[in-house]
């Protein structure tokens, strides 16, 4: 009682050998169950870039422009953040592959 349908059919990826027999014992031999459909690798090779290109082709997280403000007859320079005419970096290839966040395995280091 209390088992879900996927555990009862032996599709639970963390099945233990202590379980009864049948499909659960067969699933206990493998750490992960093979998916029925398309095989998806557990690694991520690209990510979405967090930087932007400006009109000059410079790449940065933030862009600022210097503006001259006159206050009480004195000129002061202030930096104003630019939000317009920025192009997102797009997809960036990772140097080393990462494990996908939804991959159902717990990593443990002794």
UniProtKB/TrEMBL annotation:
Record-given protein name: Tumor suppressor 2, mitochondrial calcium regulator
One cellular-component annotation, GO: mitochondrion
GO BP field: cell maturation; inflammatory response; natural killer cell differentiation; negative regulation of interleukin-17 production; neutrophil-mediated killing of gram-negative bacterium; phagocytosis; positive regulation of interleukin-10 production; regulation of mitochondrial membrane potential
Lineage of source species: Eukaryota, Metazoa, Chordata, Craniata, Vertebrata
InterPro entries named among the record's database cross-references: FUS1
Superkingdom of origin organism: Eukaryota
């Amino acid at each position: 009682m209390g088992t879900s349908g996927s555990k009862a059919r032996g599709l639970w990826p963390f099945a233990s050998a202590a379980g009864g027999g049948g499909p659960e014992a067969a699933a206990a031999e493998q750490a992960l169950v093979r998916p029925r459909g398309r095989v998806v690798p557990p690694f991520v090779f690209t990510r979405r870039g967090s930087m932007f290109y400006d009109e000059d082709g410079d790449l940065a997280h933030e862009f600022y422009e210097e503006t001259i403000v006159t206050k009480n007859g004195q000129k002061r320079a202030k930096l104003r953040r630019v939000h317009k005419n920025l192009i997102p970096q797009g997809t960036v290839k990772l140097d080393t592959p990462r494990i996908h966040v939804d991959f159902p395995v717990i990593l443990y280091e002794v």
